[in-house]
Structure formats: C-alpha cells, structure tokens
Specification:
about 120 residues, alpha/beta, Rossmann fold, four-stranded parallel β-sheet, 4 strands, about 20% strand
C-alpha cells in the first residue's frame, strides 16, 4: 500500500480563502465573492436552509457548501477547514484569509482554531 502525504507548502496557489456565514449574511457574502479574483481558491460555508443559495456564484476554484442550520455545525466546519488549510509551521509565501459574516461570528469560536492570527 502506498501512502501519499499531501503538502500544502508545495502546492499552488499559496493563497487560500474561507468565507463563512449565516443565511442572514448572504448579501455580504455575495459582495465578498464578487471581490475575489478569478483565480481565487477556497471554500464558502453558509449555514442556510435547503434551496436558499440558488443563484450564488463564486470563482471556478471556490466551492460553496451549504451547512444545515443546527447548533455547532458551522463552527465545526470552520474549525475543520482551518485545521486542514492553516499550516502549523510558518510559511511566509502562503496567505490564508478567513472571513466570517457578522451573524456567523457568534456561532464560531475563533479561540479554538489554534492559530496566532486570522485576517477577518
């Protein structure tokens, strides 16, 4: 059996974005997505009921995920994303931006993310 180790340091692009929010942040999320460059890479996590994200668009390499509204789901999704994409070791060539909508900030505990600095 072969095991492959995925190194984020060797992959391009070295700029990643996470946009997370609640359905009440949808207008702000749409603006944030419109401001991203066409080559942006990352993920959008939105706590929203089914069918409520129709028409929301993102650059080709930015995926949009709907999170079923329930206690802790958005927090868990953001924590999982950060643990995967924010490296433990400092890499000055790499930039990770996390944007949380105003309605989502009370649902996500940034102290548990284990990073020294987030651009929010």
């Amino acid at each position: 059996m072969l095991n492959f180790v995925r190194s984020h340091r060797r992959r391009l692009p070295l700029e990643h974005v996470l946009i997370a929010g609640h359905i009440a942040d949808l207008d702000d999320i749409a603006v944030a997505l419109a401001l991203l460059p066409a080559d942006a890479y990352g993920q959008v996590l939105i706590e929203a009921p089914a069918g409520s994200l129709d028409g929301l668009t993102a650059p080709a390499r930015v995926s949009i995920q709907r999170i079923e509204p329930s206690t802790g789901s958005l927090d868990q999704a953001v924590t999982a994303w950060v643990s995967e994409w924010v490296p433990q070791e400092l890499d000055l060539r790499r930039n990770v931006t996390v944007w949380l909508g105003g309605h989502a900030s009370s649902r996500v505990d940034l102290r548990d993310l284990g990073v020294d600095h987030l651009t929010i």
